[in-house]
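Why show two proteins at once? Because comparison is the fastest way to build intuition. When a single record is shown, students tend to memorize it. When two are placed side by side, the eye starts asking what differs. So, the first record is below.
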Amino acid sequence: ICSRIHIVGDRCRISGIVKEASSSMDLFYTPKYAKTGDVIPFYNEETKQFDNYYLKNWNPDAPGDLVVHGWHKITTADNRTYQEVPVNICGGTGSVIKVNGTYHMFYCTFDQNPPAQWARHAVSDDLTHWEDIPEDKFGPDGEIYRMSDWRDPFVFWNPDEKKWWMLLAARENSVTERNGCVALCVSDDLSHWEYRKPLYAPRTHQAANECPDLFRMGDWYYLVYSNYTDGFCTYYRMSKSLNGPWIRPAVDTFDGRAFYAAKTGSDGTNRYVYGWNPTRGENGWGFDPGKDFGKDYCSWNWGGSIVVHKLIQHEDGTLGVCPVDSVAEAYGQGEKTSWEFLTGQWSRRDEKALCSSPDGYGAALCDGLPRQGVVRAKICYEGEPTRFGMALHVDENFDKGYYLMFEPNFQRIEFRSGLRMYEQGGQMFPYAVEMERPLQLVAGKEYELELYIQDSLAVLYVNKDVAFGFRMYNESGKRLGWFVSEGSIRVWDVEIAGE
């Protein structure tokens, strides 16, 4: 799903180079008239910048004279501001490496009649102009791997074997349809590839494990992939050896449902994970209601805005994420907010707002939220509340809006949009949870919250270790709120910065 919709044939050419720059104030990159799809990271050791690439999904209203299909290169020094230029390759996700002064791109293309997927190879001497090598095109073998999915090649040097390894999104020949895997091929020359059994084949998903990525950090190897069946996330596994076994950590994702097709890149000091937070509203899958109830009611699009997290490695080898420095430093100290207590027993003590609401719902309002900016706060709970947390873009009635609900009984954060509070929303979305992220919740523990907002897009970071991205369309320009149900909370150091 992440690259198959870019069905463009074997080659594409561009007649000119048109550069596009992101706004210096944007927190998350969204190209004009388009959506960002899968990011292919590449760190340029010569310029000390990332020359990343991404799959560009143009909006239906994009002016025809601006549309250039295929891969687009996005150069950045801070993982926040970008200079964009198209390149002469049309196809799906892949990887870029440099060998003996030559850049090598591995990507994929798709045939329609009959359906087929192919790994491809191109070379360049400047990272912008690429020449495909037609004779290096190859597909699955039909024995180890089904003659179907074969995409998103990721190539790296294995120093132990002294061979090149290629990982691909594939499906193994298996007795069930739960055959999504990360395929493995090896080569001595980057042109001729030997098929091997899958690097990772959990027999869990009914679709290929997309956008595979692999890196080493300390003593651990990490395998990253995305899947859209039995869940819809980017996942990771960890091992002390490239030969496995690949361990599933307790929390095996970097973000929630609104972070997909993520791959990683390192500047030699820090490693970052690049995914996309999807927009809503184009009804590309044909699932949306016939009546327009606002974009919050719509299905996710393919692609949206680039969200980048910095990876954090814990002592046990598991991974967390925090905001990249350029986003964390985009806004200085914000303004302290005012408070309006609505329900529950609220008080102020030592600049802390305290609420005890053992038998119902306690709610309070703070100042308005910016169109773009950050909300910082600290929160702690006592007792056994059913939920507590932040309300976003709520009005004086503490009614419609968006709720980040910390739920100790479930050890998670749940995101719930305002439409879920009403019968109509419940009829359209008759499931209990809209989106969620695992989070260990302990009474008396301090939780540091950072919420970064850019128009409809928002990402919450908890304790600089857990990320949760989402979208807010129907409600905007309203206030920040706090709440607790059947319990007690303390909230302090609340500040809002932005515009």
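Second record. Ask yourself what differs from the first in the token line.
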Amino acid sequence: PVLDFRFSDPPRSTQVMKRAMDLLVSAGLLLLLSPLLVGIALAILLDTGRPVLFRQRRAGQDGEPFTMMKFRTMVADAEERLADLVDLAALDQPAFKIPDDPRITRTGRFLRRTSLDELPQLFNVLLGEMSLVGPRPPLPGEVEGYDLWHRRRLSMKPGITGLWQVRARREPEFDRWVAADLEYIDRWSLWLDIEILA
């Protein structure tokens, strides 16, 4: 159990406005970007075949599991090959990333560089599992390795983007990621969301 002390608690009306913004923006972007989504799907099919989408269980608000969607940027058996690459990790646990990951496909490199692989998460936003802005959703295994203070980043709905992504996306130290997420949680407002999205 974690007792969470908050210095500010946004009014219910502000939280409703955040959800309304999530719905309007994600639905609008999905309609507007539908030709791009189809084009990316075709590029993945032509490059490496099916599946086009990568689905992965993530920890959402309060640790509730949900299935996050992305365009597939790695080879189809990437999860099975992970054990062979763990010693290449560039980041301290519990976070895990590999520089120049050999499992990334040709199309996947472009999608990751431009963050276009994240676009299917707009469906997660529509479903209410994610928000446009918030802490990035961790893997359940990463949550098991959290220190106690890390867990407060689960107190808010996860987002497609967040404060640390715009401030220090390449930051290798996990504790600094979390510090930025907690700063966002403590400072959260609709205006801050708009700034981050911009």
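One difference worth noting in the second protein: The CA atoms of residues 153 and 182 lie 6 Å apart.
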